[in-house]
Amino acid sequence: MNNFERIVSFLLDNDKTISCMESCTGGAFASSITCIPNSSEVFHFGAVTYSNEYKIKMGVDSNIIDKYTVYSIETAREMSKAISSFTNSNYGVGVTGQINKQDPNNPFGVVGEVFISIYDKDIDKYYDFELKTDKQTRIENKEVIVQFISEKLLNVFNIDN
């Protein structure tokens, strides 16, 4: 069983749901989870919010972006909680960062630095992670990030991976 099969199985067995707000991964996490049979029973919503404007429209506090930048664990936290709240999901995943090139609309932060937050609404707890990416292509970097997220979710769920 792969990580995403294990994640969906855990969510099904525990009557839990998950949603995500992704930036640099461009929906790769949502795509990975929705490839699994019965994921429609546990996956509520996936938002790809490349722009600050749409992060804010989805519930991210603009003051957090202004204070910490869009490329920060604070913004990832806002993303994970906002998507959990918006969809009434037990878990929210927020991902932000820059992979492979500097963002001309947000000329700060470090290329290759990714911030991930998993929010557990039931216990009001964040699990925060940073990851450095160094692959040559965006596709390879997205694969690394999504695999990392799946491993961290298994840890949050207390499932050995």
Outline of this structure?
40% of the residues lie in helices and 21% in strands. With 161 residues, the protein is α/β, with parallel strands linked by helices.
Can you identify the CATH superfamily?
CinA-like
| SSE sequence, one letter per element | HEHEHHHEEEH
Total number of beta strands = 5
Tell me the distance between the termini. Answer: 10 Å
Report on this model:
This protein has 161 residues and is α/β, with parallel strands linked by helices. The chain has one domain: CinA-like (Maf protein, Alpha-Beta Complex). It contains six helices and five strands; from the N terminus they run αβαβαααβββα. α2 links the parallel β1 (18-22) and β2. α1 (3-13) packs parallel to α6. The N and C termini lie close together (10 Å).
For this entry, give a set of tags.
161 residues, globular, alpha/beta, Maf protein, 40% helix
SSE topology:
Layout: H1 3-13, E1 18-22, H2 28-34, E2 43-48, H3 52-57, H4 62-68, H5 73-87, E3 91-97, E4 113-120, E5 125-132, H6 138-156
Parallel strand pairs: 1-2, 1-3
Antiparallel strand pairs: 3-4, 4-5
